[in-house]
Amino acid sequence: MLHVDPISAATSAAAPTVTAATPPPFTVTSVFTETRLDSWLAVGLVLAAGIYLYGVHRLRIRGDRWPVARTVFFIGPGLGGIAAVTVSGLHAYDTALLSVHMVQHMVLSMISPIFLALGAPMTLALRTLPQRPRRRLLAVVHSRIVRVYTFPLVAFTIFVVNPFALYFTDLYRYTLEHAWAHELVHAHFILTGCVFFWPLLGLDPLPGRWPYPGRALLMLLSVPFHTVLGLTIMQSSTLFGGDWYPSLGLTWADPWADQVVAGGILWAGGEVVSVTMLAVLVVQWMRQAEREARRIDRDLDRQEARQRAAEAAS
């Protein structure tokens, strides 16, 4: 088997400066028993869900319709997906098992952002906010910095480069040793995923959105990068994070075997999610084409009606 080593800086042999709390053996039960509800992220998720549902409630009070699917997407796999990997018992293992960290990576950067985008929270805000806050929100959306970061090529570059910058430098080891940095990486995963997927699949009005063929091309181009990263992790002859995982002394886990599993999760999961989202993009493309065809038909019908009326009048 071909072995590809990460940059040596990422696998320093120095002993960990911080000792992680040793979690119990990983089981389905521990995912529930190790759940924490007192984190800042849990509070933020509850607050985001409450604000979204309040906006939907305001629309219903005034008689406006809001698609149920959008609410389900945003609250369920969107916010719920984030909670499943950060608030549940999985959080107790994210610095003990690389495979658990990769599950978090996949959900936070590729799965939850997609469903957050499909929930169209910006559109909901624009329909419920008073005039002045709505103008401010539109000003932010159309600001220069948002235009730059949501430009598809910029967002694609950030999305692709970030994992390599994290795992092939000292940064990953640093996040293992410092809890605040590890939490910041979680937030960064969510942000980069939103920046990439929102312009591609989102329903909100964003500036500089590419036509569907360009979006599909970017989605396809993102697949090989996760494959390369996953295979590199699986075939590496050195441990990511250096001696961090062996130093934990987990008798119920083998760091080498777990690293292979982690690479497989990133490889297979990345391809499955990318192909699935490409299918979603194609469906959106077809629906947009159908709407455009209906619009053209209506315009032609009106033109024919005016022509017949003119002929009858003459």
Automatic annotation (TrEMBL):
GO terms for cellular component: plasma membrane. It holds the Pfam family Caa3_CtaG. InterPro entries: Caa3_assmbl_CtaG-rel (IPR019108). Its main location: membrane. Keywords: Cell membrane, Coiled coil, Membrane, Transmembrane, Transmembrane helix. It comes from the Bacteria. It is a multi-pass membrane protein. The chain crosses the membrane at residues 39-56, 68-93, 105-126, 146-165, 185-204, 216-240, 260-285. The keyword Membrane applies. Residues 286-313 form a coiled coil. The keyword Membrane applies. It is found in: Cell membrane. This is Cytochrome c oxidase assembly protein. It comes from Micromonospora endolithica.
